[in-house]
Write a structure and sequence with these properties.
This protein is mostly helical. It has 13 helices and three strands. The chain has one domain.
């Protein structure tokens, strides 16, 4: 879902690490939505919930990786993104997707609910009131594109330490402090004074800048080992507390799986760093890999339709057992989405919305 500027201008090749990361992140999102389609309604006391909670804990880094990829290319001095291009090319592309898919899902919901003509006429209003749940990412990306010209001024003039300083502020006040406050309140009924936090620090721009930093400056071997270790610990912490509070409340609790949790950030950063390090500056002209990568935005946009159709047939990922059915159906939903997107992208003009 990153900018098309990931194409190396002089050779028409694409950076290999980003191609693989897009595919992995897209599948992870499909996997997450497949699991959570049953996770919210499964009794916490059942063995099925424990399995779904475990699977859920493995699938929360996808969005963070997508935004890091975007930041890596949109903020990189290697690729030209003057304000005019960002505001007249990149941003309008996202707005077209928001309008197209916001309307598509708005009308689809009316059809599924057997609405009358008034419902059809009011469907466009959902763009501003209640768009399809997964479309929030497009709105976020539009916001990041709007501040990209200002962020590029910063990244082009700031030292690596200064960029890292801003990321550290985001991590400390946007991720760690709110999470610590949540834990203190739940475990000791104590809250941190709200004005200790820096207002506005909780923003996806932190992921955006992190992607740029890792891609542009890289991390040394020792720092990478620390990051990978913290990511592994983070997964355990998020899984443990999500399970603990779900049982305590007798209701699914996804607080520790949220995008703005330090655990989610560390896992996304570790995966992004691993692939960036593994492939370095290697570029590829592998047509199959590039074609598949280009379909990932479309896969993200259409896959909820297949999940909705699955439940429309009164099927369940709990049968015969979620440890098998959930991953299997995630692969099926991903494969169907990829097939449909590939077919539609062959139609003239359809690539603008897929």
């Amino acid at each position: 879902m990153a900018s098309q500027s990931s194409i190396t201008e002089s050779q028409g090749r694409r950076e290999k690490y980003a191609e693989w990361l897009r595919i992995i992140a897209a599948f992870t999102v499909v996997f997450q939505h497949t699991v959570t389609s049953a996770w919210y309604d499964t009794p916490v006391s059942s063995p099925d919930f424990f399995v779904l909670n475990f699977l859920n804990s493995l699938s929360r880094f996808g969005v963070g990786v997508f935004i890091m990829i975007s930041g890596a290319f949109m903020l990189s001095p290697k690729y030209a993104h003057p304000p005019k291009k960002v505001l007249t090319y990149n941003l309008p592309k996202i707005i077209i997707l928001i309008v197209t898919w916001g309307l598509a899902y708005g009308f689809l919901n009316v059809i599924c609910q057997s609405g009358d003509w008034v419902d059809y006429l009011s469907a466009p209003i959902t763009l501003f009131t209640k768009p399809a749940t997964h479309l929030w990412f497009l709105y976020t990306l539009a916001g990041l594109y709007m501040i990209t010209p200002a962020l590029r001024v910063f990244t082009q003039n700031a030292s690596p330490r200064m960029v890292l300083y801003v990321i550290a502020l985001f991590f400390t006040f946007g991720l760690v402090l709110p999470t610590a406050n949540h834990l203190l309140f739940k475990l000791a009924d104590v809250s941190i004074y709200k004005n200790i936090g820096i207002q506005g620090s909780t923003t996806f721009a932190g992921f955006y800048l992190s992607g740029f930093y890792i891609a542009h400056y890289g991390l040394g071997p020792k720092v990478r080992k620390i990051l990978y270790s913290l990511a592994a610990i983070s997964w355990f912490v998020s899984f443990f507390y999500a399970t603990y509070f779900s049982i305590a409340r007798d209701a699914p609790n996804e607080y520790f799986f949220g995008n703005f949790r330090p655990m989610t950030f560390l896992i996304a950063a570790a995966i992004f760093c691993y692939f960036r390090t593994k492939y370095g500056n290697t570029t590829t002209d592998d047509a199959k890999l590039i074609d598949m990568s280009k379909c990932m935005l479309g896969v993200y946009l259409v896959h909820p339709m297949f999940i909705k159709a699955f439940y429309g047939l009164h099927l369940s990922i709990l049968i015969p057992h979620p440890i098998v059915t959930a991953p299997l159906m995630a692969v099926v939903f991903f494969g169907l989405s990829l097939f449909v997107v590939r077919m539609f992208r062959k139609i003239p003009g359809m690539r603008k919305i897929l």
